[in-house]
Design brief:
The protein has a single domain, classed as Proton glutamate symport protein (Orthogonal Bundle). With about 425 residues, the chain is mainly alpha-helical. About 75% of the residues lie in helices and about 0% in strands.
Length: about 425
């Protein structure tokens, strides 16, 4: 498969996975063979994310070395994230009112999936107040946070550590050199891991189709269509306008991120492309220090695709049970989603947990989410790709805002991609 690029390899793997899954629908033996392959790929991705995020943040923060500048960047970044994700939630709610995906759904023919693990997580997460959510940002044990892949406390520690390296001057240079070396090594490891991506995608898609069957999409087709149409609209209308205002084009961004978007879509994991996304945005002209801060932080605070899905899914459940929410109730739901979508970041099955928590707080039947569980992976594929686009654009916007975007470097990189496509 060396003659084909990564994007082509992954697409072929996706098609083959769907075919194999459809042919062996319900076959436990085939699923038992495929599951470990998919799990290995996901484990490989999780293995490289934390070292890269820590090393990149420490190197970039130590390079900035100015706590005032960092505070200013952090404030602007969080403001941007809050505005864009709120727009995403509003559009999700408007789309649910426009499409009415849950109306007239015959729930008797749908197989309820087990969501007990999500309900348990929701009860634990939901019992945490706003104060606990804020205090959770500060790790009591950074190694425990690393073991749990909890990005927010890791980001907090890495920022402080980077500032410490900068503060001690010459004595900090060996430490800085060490983490620069770690970063280079981890990018090499990332390229190695990506060679396994087609096999991982084949297994992950194959298991999903073999387990649920293609027919699973039919009764819930309205929700799938509504989510994807809304996401496409959000990318080309909202993110397209933001890209235009920042002096670039959404089509250029899509071209630059072609491989990463296909990988994120097929694996249903935006985390799978985090290392490559940081590398690509730096090559595209974004400041290294800004990219290393904005993108990992965006994986917690700027999940546009997830925000759209959470809003649509919440109203879908209400519509499914024939519950008509007033404008006031939907505004309340908007405010709840603005809080829960941030507070649940890093929680396993975060989008599911957010929807469950939102439904519970609004007094809506949480068991309705069980109907979405069977097709959640199909929806997750779309929202993962949108999350990647949103965070890459955020890095561009913040670099431009801070006057640290290299347009010549961006133009050169885009030209090199065009030439490689022709070749």
């Amino acid at each position: 498969m060396k003659r084909f690029g990564l994007a082509t390899q992954i697409f072929i793997a996706l098609v083959l996975g769907i075919v194999v899954g459809a042919l062996f629908h319900g076959n436990e033996t085939v699923m038992a063979i495929l599951v470990p392959i998919g799990d290995i790929f996901i484990h490989l991705i999780k293995m490289i994310v934390i070292p890269i995020v820590m090393a990149a943040l420490i190197v970039s923060i130590a390079g900035v070395g100015d706590i005032k500048k960092l505070g200013k960047l952090g404030g602007k970044t969080l403001l941007y994230f809050e505005i864009v994700t709120t727009i995403a939630i509003v559009i999700g709610l408007l789309a649910a009112n426009l499409f009415h995906p849950g109306s007239g759904l015959d729930t008797s023919n749908l197989e309820k999936s087990d969501i007990s693990k999500y309900e348990e997580t929701t009860n634990t997460a939901g019992s945490s107040g706003f104060g606990e959510t804020i205090s959770h940002i500060v790790p009591s044990n950074v190694f425990e946070s690393m073991a749990q892949a909890d990005l927010l406390p890791i980001i907090f520690f890495s920022v402080l550590f980077g500032l410490g390296v900068a503060a001690i001057g010459e004595k900090g240079k060996p430490i800085l050199g060490f983490f620069e070396g770690v970063l280079e090594v981890m990018f090499w490891v990332t390229n190695l891991v990506m060679k396994f991506a087609p096999f991982g995608v084949f297994a992950l898609i194959g298991v999903t189709v073999a387990k649920f069957g293609i027919a699973t999409l039919i009764p819930l087709g309205n929700l799938v269509i509504a989510v994807y149409v809304t996401m496409v609209f959000f990318v080309f209308a909202i993110l397209g306008i933001i890209a235009k205002m920042s002096g670039t084009s959404i089509f250029v961004i899509l071209k630059v991120l072609k491989d990463e978007l296909i990988l994120a879509f097929t694996t249903a994991s935006s985390e799978s492309v985090l290392p490559r996304l940081m590398d690509k945005m730096e090559k595209f002209g974004c400041s290294k220090s800004i990219t290393s801060f904005v993108i990992p932080t965006g994986y917690t605070f700027n999940l546009d695709g997830s925000s759209i899905y959470q809003a649509l899914a919440s109203l879908f459940v209400a519509q499914m049970y024939g519950i008509d929410l007033s404008i006031t109730q939907q505004i309340t739901m908007l405010l709840v989603l603005m809080l829960t979508s941030k507070g649940m970041a890093g929680v396993p099955g975060a989008s599911f947990v957010v929807v469950l928590t939102t439904l519970g707080s609004m007094g809506l039947p949480v068991e309705g989410v069980a109907f979405i569980a069977g097709i959640d992976r199909i929806l997750d594929m779309g929202r993962s790709a949108v999350n990647v686009i949103g965070n890459s654009l955020a890095a561009i916007v913040m670099s431009k805002w801070e006057g640290e975007f290299d347009q010549d470097k961006a133009n050169h990189y885009v030209d090199s991609i065009k030439q490689s496509d022709v070749a």
